[in-house]
Amino acid sequence: xxxxxxxxxxxxxxxxxxxxxxxxxxxxxxxxxxxxxxxxxxxxxxxxxxxxxxxxxxxxxxxxxxxxxxxxxxxxxxxxxxxxxxxxxxxxxxxxxxxxxxxxxxxxxxxxxxxxxxxxxxxxxxxxxxxxxxxxxxxxxxxxxxxxxxxxxxxxxxxxxxxxxxxxxxxxxxxxxxxxxxxxxxxxxxxxxxxxxxxxxxxxxxxxxxxxxxxxxxxxxxxxxxxxxxxxxxxxxxxxxxxxxxxxxxxxxxxxxxxxxxxxxxxxxxxxxxxxxxxxxxxxxxxxxxxxxxxxxxxxxxxxxxxxxxxxxxxxxxxxxxxxxxxxxxxxxxxxxxxxx
Length: 341
What we know:
Layout: H1 5-12, H2 16-23, H3 33-45, H4 52-57, E1 64-69, H5 78-93, E2 97-102, H6 107-119, E3 124-128, H7 134-143, E4 147-151, E5 159-163, H8 165-178, E6 184-189, H9 200-208, H10 214-221, E7 222-225, H11 235-253, E8 259-261, H12 265-277, E9 287-289, H13 295-298, E10 306-308, H14 311-322, E11 329-333, E12 336-338
Parallel strand pairs: 1-2, 1-3, 3-4, 4-5, 5-11, 6-7, 6-8, 8-9
Antiparallel strand pairs: 10-12
Helix pairs in contact: 1-2, 1-3, 5-14, 6-7, 8-9, 11-12
């Protein structure tokens, strides 16, 4: 039999409103700390779960948040794992329960997922990346009077928090130049769907060379990576392999390359492996940089610079803004650049 608030109130010998106030984490209720602990203990023993349908029928808030990651492979990214854990922890401290799900590349499936979450009583949506079918999802959320925010570029829902990746990329490129490594290559991903002019790494390149036309910068510095099966079971292993193979191609085309800026740390580790096999001294003969400041790069025996997302500040901003009314909002959080040579 399903446990109700009445059951808990009877066993705890308190009123139904007192139990409701404690279980909904209300701070203005007159319940002693001892009674509060007693109610929570009984609820846990009886395996109580809230009935969102009843709350919705009564017009009460469910204090629930949905975290929706836009690409399944991002679950393997260390910084994204850290961000998800930090968000869930912060929401929990504020008394909010969290759903977490990965949405797909199909607009209808994504719409159905958001609709289902709304029916479960979700009030606040946090999108980690931009979902396919975003215009329809935006209309659905707004018509349902829900709140929302996206971690990523500000083109979705007019409410966004993003990392200042272009400035981080510009810092890496300036580091290359300051060390006399002007013959560098910038690797970008051809399968993410953004144009060359909006790619965050290329935007960093344009910051460094504002007087040079984009096409000229592309010819001189930019290299498209081959498509990698990001839906594979072990995508990070494929990233290392792709970095290794692409570095071999770059060296064949230009043996005098002095620096390489990879898509991420794992691509850079693959490139470092190839370069070591070829007898290069990393940090002297050639400079390398990745992105995301993973544990793998921090502990790698050869110096690889990287750009770190400021998880603490991103989390704080997302949590604060996601619980507000859905007014236009945009925040760009500075990255943290780690130079190693």
